[in-house]
Amino acid sequence: MADDAAIPREDAPPPPVPSGPFARLIGAMNAVGTLWIIGLMILINADIVGRSFLSRPIAGVPELVAFSIVGIVFLQLAHTLRSGSMTRSDVLLNVLERRAPRARFALLTLFHLIGALLLLMIAWKFWPSVVGAWQHPERNFMGNPGFFTVPQWPLFILIFLGIIATAIQFLLLSWSDLGAARGIAR
Amino acid sequence: MSGVEIALLSIVIMLLLIYSGVHVAIALILLSFGGVWLIRGNFDIASNMLVLAFKDSISDYIFGVVPLFVLMGLLVAIAGIGRDTFEVAAQVFRKVLGGLGIATVAANAVFAAITGISIASAAVFTKVAVPEMMRHGYTPRFSVGVVAGSSVLGMLLPPSLLFILYGVLTEQSVGSLFIAGIIPGILLSLIYCAGIMAMGRWWPSFIGGGGAAKGDPVHDMGIGEMLSKLAPIVILIALVLGGIYGGFFTPTEAGAAGALGALLISLAKRRLSWASFWQVLVQTGHTTSSICFLIVGASLYSRMLAMSGMPGWLGSAVIDSGMGVTGIIIALLLVVILLGTILDSASILLLTLPIAVPILVGLQVDLIWLGVLMIIAVEIGLLTPPFGIAVFVVKATLGPDSAVTLNDIFFGAAPFALMMLLVLVLIFLFPWLATALV
Questions:
Q1: What is the pLDDT of residues A150-178, one digit of tens each?
Q2: Using a CB-CB distance cutoff of 8 angstroms, which residues of chain B are in contact with residue A48?
Q3: Rounded CA separation B427/B376 (Å)
Q4: Is the CB of A4 less than 8 angstroms away from the CB of B386?
Q5: What residues in A contact B51, CB-CB < 8 Å?
Q6: Do B290 and A87 touch (CB under 8 A)?
Q7: Does A98 touch chain B (CB under 8 A)?
Q8: Residue of B13, B14, B54 for testing the chain A interface, max A β-carbons within 10 Å
Q9: H or E element, residue A136
Q10: CB-based burial, A104-141: b 16+ in 10 Å, e otherwise
Q11: For the segment A84-122, what is each residue's pLDDT rounded down to a tens digit?
Q12: Distance (Å) from the C-alpha of residue A69 to the closest C-alpha of chain B?
């Protein structure tokens, strides 16, 4: 049974980040996103069955799918980064690992810091949208009025939290890379 | 600086950053933001563009296909469907020259029809087919080469994650793209088989093999056993491809039905534990998250390019140069193949399509046909050094104890990369190969 369980890993093993409350938090966010994928699969299949055999389609499936995919992605983004599955090219990094490990960590410190600052800026600019969608749900929704609508504020909160969590994860990575770079210096 | 200069400069910096190891999505977002800020000279316009992209670029029904097809692909990998298919193919092609190699290609082609990620094919068949081929005296280089080479079928035969990405980036129907991949996928499989037979005849030192392993009791599967081993994969193919082709399902619905079907099959085969199911789900989530975050970055990048006026400038420059449509497409494919040596498939599509597509649309190029060409060109990059992800996956799956080196795998896969190039040329010369079924 296990020999076929070749789950492909797209990237290197997880970086050595100390676990703690934050790791548990993004682990929990990841788990919710994971269950949401199952929910999405069940929802679409229920719609197929309802539509084909019971003549009772489920209202608003396209909107719910669009809503779900954004929720899933941003709930899992920080954990994706932490587990090393976020797409990057490691050609140069692998060369540096052998030839100049300290330069590699210095570079990673910088790159992860850039990621953190960029996402923090986006979160800062994104916040007014969250407030606006919360205060005016009648203007901020997905779907067609009178048929099926879903408010946007829960989604915007998830996006906001996902951006913040990913930014913090970038900061933690940057911090641990800095430590590693200094460790090599000694 | 003019908009065009800013755009060109940001593309150069972007390539440098991506090559140095910045996460691809971060590089795309950062340079698009910087580019717009410079072009418009206004921080608020640039940052509002970022906010807008985070809100709307992946909020669409079509993106539901990503997690569902990834989930389906990982579930069939864990259910042992790849192994069953290979065993049947191995028996069917036992008497043929290079039979196990052909069996690997055939099993990969069938398996590709239910999985959309080449790395899943590469991982499964490294476990299943490589030991079997080496036991029968095939050379290690050929054994790993044929697995790496035929794993590209996973992305060419539908469902395919790369076609989904291409469809999203160029606003083409994902369903039509899936259908367009069928004939080229079958053609590539047939050319692989012919190539293996030819190498068996004229270059036997490369493939080795031939006789049965010593002391190996030949176990013949009856027709019934073979059918029962093939039944699950046939049902899934009928469900997914039949559903899309027959018009019953949108690609998203086909993904959901296929994922549920794969889940039920792996439960029925008792090959799914809670732990492995959870692992599959987490892996699905990470792949989805990583792909969709890339799409956010790509949509920002194309908005930045549109604002800079660079595609229009490049378009008229290219047309003035007198290259003609044919020349432009050849140049694009060459760039893609070259980028494939240093970047991963998704990044290449994200970087090249927003520049190329506006130009090609103006010249009335069939974007479905172009999609098939692009995917094959990108996939050649899976097999070429120094960065060939299919080769890396084969190496990683073999484990640290294996004597097979990365160089061996690249060498073994080289004939298959050449055969892909041949198919690329054929589809370029005969576009109906891609468009006949659409």
A1: 888 888 899 999 999 999 999 999 998 88
A2: 249, 253, 256-257
A3: 10
A4: no
A5: 122, 125-126, 129
A6: yes
A7: no
A8: B54
A9: none
A10: bbbbbbebbbbbbebbbbbbebbeebbeebeeeeeebb
A11: 888 777 778 888 888 888 888 888 999 999 999 999 999
A12: 6
**Prior bond of B386 cis (ω within 30°):** yes
Q: Do B127 and A48 touch (CB under 8 A)?
A: no
Token digits of residue B386: 């120094």
Q: Tell me what pLDDT residue A13 has.
A: 44
Structure tokens at A159: 């996006």
| Mean pLDDT split into 10-residue runs, chain B, 438 residues | 84 85 88 89 87 83 85 85 87 84 91 80 86 88 92 87 90 90 94 92 81 56 84 88 85 89 89 86 87 85 84 80 86 89 81 87 90 94 81 81 84 94 94 88
> What's the token pair of residue B158?
């539908």
Provide the whole-model pTM. Answer: 0.83
Distance between CA B266 and CA B272 in Å, rounded?
Answer: 6
- Among B40, B372, B30, B328, CA closest to B182: B372
ipTM: 0.86
Q: What is the sign of the dihedral through the CA atoms of A175, A176, A177 and A180?
A: positive
CB contact under 8 A, A1 and B273: yes
Q: Min CA distance, A67 vs chain B (Å)? A: 6
Cross-chain CB nearest to A69 (options B19, B64, B126): B64
The burial of B274, by beta-carbon neighbours within 10 Å (0-12 exposed, 13-18 middle, 19 or more buried), is given as: exposed
Residue ranges of the domains in chain A? 20-185
Which residues does chain A have within 8 Å of residue B260's beta carbon, measured at their own beta carbons? 41-42, 45
